[in-house]
Design brief:
The structure is a homodimer. Chain A is globular, with a radius of gyration of 21 Å. Helices cover about 35% and strands about 20% of the residues of chain A. In chain A, the strands form four sheets. An eight-stranded mixed sheet of chain A has the order 7-4-1-8-11-12-13-14, with helices on both faces. A two-stranded antiparallel sheet of chain A has the order 2-3. At the A-B interface, β3, β5, β6, α4 and β10 of A face β3, β5, β6, α4 and β10 of B. Chains A, B: InterPro entries: CoaB-like_sf, DNA/pantothenate-metab_flavo_C.
């Protein structure tokens, strides 16, 4: 786990496609607000923690990005992701003392809301005779715990929620987050649980209006999204500890793909998972072997053990970093 | 508004593409449960209402359908739709005494939840000192009204919620709903507010596994979804009162497209709207002219006036139907 891995130079071709992506993307509407929030969050959390060392900050990305097919967007390609993994992981990172930037798809699963109903939360509540709001007896414990835990995290100032919908928004905000986390050096972590589109339609070549359905079958050509993980590792936040995910449907190619991602993007850990079993089973691939993690029963989260392992790896990474600094000085 | 409009014969080509769509679609997992719920709902609501006449039943479709691009679905095409229109309309149909089958996209906006927060409903609540759950003062009225109205609708047994995600689920459930509503004759109404995909990838020709991103740009060919509105009007529920929606981004073609839909699918009303203004402005196209409807201010719903007009048209339709029956006997 060489902290310097990220500092190589990007291939020219990638640099060109990255530049072209950002130059032609529709600009973020609220970038100055996001920038302001980020700065305040990093300032607050980069001061020493109670234990003496700096606070560790993790950016958890969560949910799927969309790819608009029309500029005035009616249709878009979406990536399957409930955001459950990111939401659960955020809760365990809090428990471990991390401050969390929760970069999430609008409307996806939120921390501490995982056990709440998806469609109609009204079913949880009823009106008392004095027209006070009461939680149905059967759900009372869950809802109370959710509200309590959530408010605790918010009050401690250790949760920053940033939403996205399209691939254009996601990558622009990710870049802002990564660059503001750069000063944290190895205390920063990226946990890329979001399902990010591999293909997109460049804004310039996109249909301006809704595609009409009267003219037979629809042919589409989608470009590859530039591999931003490389750019994050090499330019935006080269010292941060980086975890990416590899989701496949075919078990025969899973580990090979995870291994490739590990080497190609210089990740510290790649979490490999299959669509059919991702909720209860993952393989954590590192540069010195891989670890199988399963949830013990249907009531326990696989994320609990995953985050424990990652926090431990991050500690070792920081330790190694300190040794290198001392060795250099 | 000829009630008999729907009973023409379908063109052979359409019949073939409809059959092929349903034959190759992945079968519904819970079709017997849906069928049971539908039957119970129609039985309960087809008895006379308090006023003497049969209860009117409307099927409100709401939210967008998805088109999977892979059989083990990671990527899919989605249609923009929050489901706000369908949820708001459902509330006004209740007010007008209709029983509502709310055929909605999973996770989309629900009736009586429109003013509740999208992402984190936890912000609405706080724990009191006795660890009871309290609604923050600022939101108290809205939440109380939502819970009260919702429970009233549920208790009256006049709300049946049926969820869908893919175009395959949507069209299969819609067919079941339409066929079970057929016995209601002209007392049934269809209000097609859902954003239904125009294109799809037939299940058989779909990639089995996740499409790999390493092999350059992605070329896709999508087939047209058979025009099921015709089938609904002509075969599934020929006597029902039918409203469809036309959403466009280009104002220059909107009315022409709405008019075409009106004639092609024998709709009784087509609601034409533009993406940029659909929340506050619609044009209701009928066979004797069109009506512009706007919301009066930012606090009022355009759906209130829309539903008033539709209920009135539906009454006239029923009246005409009764005259024809008497005329025939």
């Amino acid at each position: 786990m060489d902290p310097g891995n990220g500092s190589d130079i990007l291939p020219e071709e990638l640099t060109a496609s990255v530049e072209s992506f950002f130059d032609t993307a529709p600009p973020l509407q609220d970038s100055s607000l996001i920038s302001h929030k980020l700065q305040a969050f990093i300032d607050r959390n980069s001061k020493s923690s109670e234990g003496g060392g700096p606070v560790r900050v993790v950016c958890v990305t969560s949910g799927g990005t969309t790819v608009p097919l029309e500029q005035r967007c009616v249709r878009y390609i979406d990536n399957f992701s409930s955001g459950h993994r990111g939401a659960a992981s955020t809760e365990y990172f809090f428990k471990a003392g991390y401050a969390v930037i929760f970069l999430h798809r609008r409307g996806s699963c939120q921390p501490y809301c995982r056990y709440l109903p998806e469609d109609s939360f009204l079913d949880f509540f009823e009106l008392g005779e004095d027209s006070s709001i009461q939680v149905c007896q059967s759900h009372s414990t869950i809802v109370k715990k959710a509200i309590g835990d959530y408010q605790n995290a918010v009050e401690r100032g250790q949760l920053l929620k940033l939403p996205f919908t399209t691939i254009f928004e996601y990558l622009q905000v990710l870049r802002m987050v990564a660059i503001s986390m750069r000063p944290l050096g190895p205390y920063g972590m990226f946990y890329h649980a979001a399902a990010v589109s591999d293909f997109y339609v460049p804004w310039e070549s996109m249909a301006k209006h809704k595609i009409q359905s009267s003219s037979g079958p629809l042919d589409m050509r989608l470009n590859q999204v530039p591999k931003m993980l490389s750019v994050l590792r090499k330019e935006w936040a080269p010292m941060a500890f980086c975890i990416s995910f590899k989701l496949e449907t075919d078990g025969n190619i899973l580990l090979q793909k995870a291994d490739m991602a590990m080497k190609k993007y210089h990740m510290h850990v790649v979490v490999a998972n299959l669509l059919a079993t991702y909720k209860r089973e993952v393989i954590m691939v590192t540069d010195n072997g891989s670890i199988n993690v399963c949830s013990q029963d249907e009531y326990s989260d696989v994320e609990e053990e995953m985050i424990k392992i990652l926090v431990d790896r991050h500690s070792k990474y920081l330790e190694q970093y300190r040794i290198e600094i001392i060795g250099l000085s």
